[in-house]
Amino acid sequence: MRKSLGLIAVFLILGMAAGAVQAETLVEIDRLRNGDLETVGFELTKGGEVDIEAVGVKARYNSSLVVYAWILDYETRKPVWTMTGSRADRGRAKKALRRAEKTTFLEKGKYELYMFAGDNLNFTSDFRGGKDFVDLLSNLFDDEDDEYEDDYYDVRDYLRDCYVRVSSDELTTADVKEYESDGGLLAALARFNRLGDDEYIRQAFTIDKPMNVRIYTVHEHPRGYDDPVDRSWIMDATTHKRIWELDRLNTERGGGGRKNRMCDEEVRLKKGTYVLHFVTDDSHSYDNFNVNPPYDPMNWGITLLPGTDFEASAFHLVEGDEGEKPLVDLMRARDDDYEEQAFELKKDAQIRVHAVGEYSRGDRDFSDYGWIEDVSTGRPVWEMTRRNTEHAGGADKNRMFDGPVDLKAGKYVAYYLTDGSHSYRDWNSTRPYDPSSWGLAIYPGANFNKSDFAILDEADILAGTDVLVRMIRVGDRERRRDKFTLESRGKVNIYAIGEGSRGDMYDYAWIDNDETGRTEWEMTWRNTDPAGGADKNRMYRGSIVLDPGTYEVTYITDGSHSFNDWNAGHPRDPKSWGVTVSLAE
Description:
39 strands, 10-stranded antiparallel beta sheet, single chain, mainly beta, Jelly Rolls, 3 helices
């Protein structure tokens, strides 16, 4: 009887062993290196039950995993299985290891198997506090605080034990086809995925009739931030109004770190031309995720897809970002730059101004900025202000104006000025979304006729104007003189900027009667106002009445603080450092 029982036991053991051998490995990932994000695409030619086994690593200060695996459905881009800390058992040999096992049914179709090996076991939380505070939280809430003998352990000591394996008793390798993972979304109209740090994508497109388009994004939006740090929007190319943009309300968790977000929605667009924008900041991207990556890392970026009533024949991609070159280009401004360009409008017209610059909260004014001036009056008709600009991405001080400006027929000068820091290719803080647009550009506005527009040179600016004397951009140790004659009694406008302090002027102008030698007007501390920038920048803007005769205008400077050689903050209108006299209307 005992002999029979012994034979039965042997047969049972052999049967169990035979059953174990029948489970066949379909796909797996192992031999990870520090910081790896590995993926294998596999297609099941028929559905079946599979066994998933994975070994990962737990974070030091919480229950999340820093080495873990998941499976993504190729078509839906949704996870069908994820390895999480709460559902993973402790490893026996090394207590930081976590093992997960799952038996599930996978339908016929394509899948992507992922495994991530974080390069720092303490980074999975979006929190960036000091170690003492983290230790305090660990002691309060971590019931495994005595699990480790050392205060620190290195992920590299555990990677040789980590893997993920998909096997099956029902399916064999003949039922599986491996492929190179590409992120799916094969119906994409425009696709910008696997984006890295500091990228700015623009894609123009035209639709010939109202229709829906689908937008799919995976991006970064940290908790506590009003806006995503990887931003996206669709702009009407004609009005430059934003038709759609990312925010927290139209997004959801993207898996992995809490700052990973995703959006998958349809947008209704009218007939017209649009520009799709997507911008990444300087960290956490497909190149290098600094917290656990999202479930769909290959689609980090944005994809435009057909909507429910989409008609392919009515959709067209446009070459370039907006299909329009600027009429005036003062972009890519560097440190201590001063750029200007005169132009003429033969008829009233609308232009579009795009300007990006630097706003100083301490000075409550712009350090790098642009403006447009009417040649006939010398007065600005448009300028960058805190109110008419918005955040341009990157550092808070980066500000942008992008909108229409209506101008009367006449001559104008566009200006752009920078200080000695934070400009194109030499940023001292995070650069804006589009660094190449640092400066000012003018584009055609609505119903603009290019035949009514002309670029002017210096001689063209003064031709046909009422300017009598113009001595500007005056440097150190200069003494300039010029004369004008009035045939009859009349009023003249004077616009002068100079340096004054404590009641005295050091760079200033005056007007003498050439026949009598009498001073008809002089720039003084009392008759001037602040000109912006340093307190010593003073400005006179006013009118005087002169009798018929010849007059001499003089402007002098001392040995410091003048045009393009400022020893303190420059005035709001630095190019006018000097004096301009013109006939009043």
